[in-house]
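Quick one before lunch.
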Amino acid sequence: MGLNTAKKIIKKHLVKGEMIPGEEIAIKIDRTLTQDSTGTMAYLQFEALGIGRVKTKKSVAYIDHNILQSGPENADDHLYIQTVAKKHGIYFSRPGNGICHQVNLERFGVPGDTLLGSDSHTPTAGGIGMLAIGAGGLDVAVAMGGGEYYLNMPKIVKVNLKGKLGDWITAKDIILEMLRRLSVKGGVGKIFEYVGDGVKTLSVPERATITNMGAELGATTSIFPSDDVVHEFLKAQGREEDFSLVEPDEDAGYDEEMEIDLSSLEPMAACPHSPDKVVPVSKLKDVKVNQVCIGSCTNSSYADMMKVANILKGNTVNENVSLTISPGSKQVLTMLSKNGALSYMIDAGARILESACGPCIGMGQSPATDAVSLRTFNRNFEGRSGTKSAKIYLVSPEIAAASALTGHVTDPRQLGRPFEVEIPAKFLIDDNMIVEPSKDGEDVKVVRGPNIKPFPKAKSLGDVLKGKVLTKVVDNITTDHIMPSNAKLLPYRSNIPYLADYCLTPCDEDFPKKAKENSGGFIAAGENYGQGSSREHAALAPLYLGIKAVFAKSFARIHRQNLINNGILPLVFEKPEDYEDIDIMDELEIEDMLEQVNSEIIVVNNKTKNKKYNMLFNVTQRQRDMIKYGGLINLVKKNNM
Ligand code: MIC
Ligand code: SF4
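Model of the alpha-methylisocitric acid complex:
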């Protein structure tokens, strides 16, 4: 049987293990990306590893998240990243140059290569046939140092796209259909590989919208083939030499299969507060809209912006709506400004924002109390916008622009004939906002502002773990719940002691206080604990607060690894009903830890209830070693990487 695209790339990069689903493999990483809100920590960890220059083909540090400067913190962090990048051989994408995933597609992504990024939407690059995976900062730091990346071999799911999208139906509707069918945990342990006749009809930015939001399925990554469409795109980006054909063999085998008939889809929206609460927009026509935000790494390409500009052209934004638009990159924004499309947006009354994440991560533009906000983004978790009571719907740029004009959720099919946007034969190319690293780094002084505090380090495992269950949370808790991020907290991403006071507070306001009073303890959780963002802070803040283990019904991939990387045990209830049995403030104890850490099952005593629970500890030997020695940094140092 032939190989599929994902397996072809994995095979070429395989350093350890066999490509058997569920088995541990290690792959070589060609390229890395970081952004600023995870980057400071990743570079502090890189420095702690004591590796001089990066050993990848190319590593890029982007500034796109922490862009509001209402105090010196963010600017200080940017300066740290700029100088540490220059010293260690990393390219630096200056603030204003755009959102990491959009700029990576345009200027850096290479089909057939592997990319590890400290951001969960790194799989966006699967749109040009890269094997691109999101991870915690520490994993990225190790990869920058030339270390391989470990993961469990995912199942490869064939998504057969049939037919062609109808007028006004978009790539966003394809991925929302995937989320409707599979839910936010439907992709855990899987790679979605898109094939079939429908693929040829989708442009690179459309493909990238789909691979981007594969992160919301919990997938390891998503990928399209690198075909003629990618070839044309890279040619138009002046990067033809980066192209190579990466396609599945005709007789390629897959672990699972599914099919979407593109012609059967209709415009859709994900309702508050989860990307999988998907309904046709026709069901929402009575919903009045207060805010519309267009942009983010999901939908901020040149093509998306041109469609929006043409819907807005000659109209005025409804008087009850505030419309913001953030073009995804300097390239996109410059092209819009030169061809006049930007003026259609401004004339209509759009508020043009910097080419950055902006409202997607709550960096400004928080909606009014109870407001309805329609966004072309990928996440609508409660409170992420900065307004807890706001109701965020995720939609295509076409729906967003149409609704901004009418003031209620609008099916764009009412607008008549759609506006066709051709992918330009030549994009406007100017890499003047990319700073090259220095030749050897010796003369570069790394600038550290006062906001940069040392990060907490795990200790090697003791023989007894004991403490209280400090909190008990429900299913699908996101890393936005565990370590909230908004314009007020993001400036402290390099200051864990400060952030720790907000850890898990959206679920349990007193959690940090209880953790401090009890010198740490445990967390009990439901299914898919830690979904969403890759932020390692969701492990570092609990580590700082003395959390020793999390007991959950199941974990999301990146967060589970971040816990292990930081020496915190992710344990899974063997019997889900034991979750019901545990109460907050129950006193738990794990004896003979140094022996039990080698076992698949760890016995936990509930001393308050005089009961025992079996917890599954289904991890690899390397992960056991990380827990024993106190996390990845200690393991890497021990093995003298
Ligand atoms: C997100 O979309 O949640 C973020 C902000 O980009 C995160 C990274 C972070 O928390 O800094 C992600 O997706 O990993
Ligand atoms: Fe930025 Fe939003 Fe994309 Fe995260 S999802 S990288 S915050 S635009």
